[in-house]
Fold this sequence. Notes:
Number of domains: 1
Bound molecules: 1,3,4-trihydroxy-5-OXO-cyclohexanecarboxylic acid
Low-confidence stretches: none
Shape: globular
Number of helices: 5
CATH superfamily: Dehydroquinase, class II
Order of helices and strands: EHHEHEHEEH
Amino acid sequence: MKLLVLNGPNLNMLGVREPGIYGSETYEALLEKIGDYACDRGVAVEFFQSNHEGALVDRIQQAYFDRVDGIVFNPGAYTHTSIALLDALKAVGIPCVEVHISDVSKREEFRQVSYIRPVCVASIIGHGTNGYLEAIDILLEQ
Ligand code: DQA
């Protein structure tokens, strides 16, 4: 099994960025945690982060040609704005789990919308960075 862990804008700033909301774990530490978790379960993981919407679309399309089995996706702020990411997920038809570190349901009104949620097999919201690990478990069950 091969999974893509995809992160959108500003998630490379974890550890620096609003630690009261997103915690003090760095992006690099998060990748190590996910990598170890996946390895223990015999899952291969690829990581990609971009601050650019089109680069995320390109990476989702690439996942199709790479025969990726599932996508763990935290689109950051593009969650709340991007029809292009929704369309990319629809185009490739790869099972996707949406992850948000913070509990977006209890934050600003503009964070209540998720364009990708309707095409995701699950959404994990507000479980901190452990949400990425839970997403792997869900994709393993697909
Ligand atoms: C986020 C929530 C989004 O609203 C925000 O724009 C992010 C991170 C989260 O992981 O909690 O960049 O996706």
